[in-house]
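Revision sheet: structure tokens.
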Amino acid sequence: MINEIIKKRRSIRSYDSTKQVSDEQIKELLEAAMLAPSACNFRPWEFIVVKDRDKLNKITEIDPHTGMLKTASCAIIVLLKPVADSGRAGEAMWQHDGGATTENILLQAASLGLGTCWCGLNPHEEYMNGIRKLFDLSDDIIPFSCIAVGYAAEDFGSRGFYEESKVKWV
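Predicted:
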């Protein structure tokens, strides 16, 4: 049976701006993020938690796909720092690590009754450079994703997407 939290997770684009996510809840999301699998355990991630309304609004100017931040309680920006060439297989897997840590945040948020929306920043140079400038980040830091977090303005319920036609059994 599929875990109900996985079914419950949805991309939420409208939040109840009267309810705020607590710092304890945010720390739980970040702990879940840091429990994600990472190739060769490089863990190339860092995070920015954005609660400042002016900064949230500026992000929406940088990336037009982040309009939901206008009502979200906060945003978590996943940053990645690719590992220098060490000759180990995991060094080239930083994008996979970013996807895993982002998904862990989404699932943990759903388990806490929070809504989220994953907005990709990488590989869009314009978005990544805008985030670097807004938060004074060095060029070797990759702004990977921006996750809106808050209480959904409405309940969308669970859904499923299994499509047998997309599966080849061998």
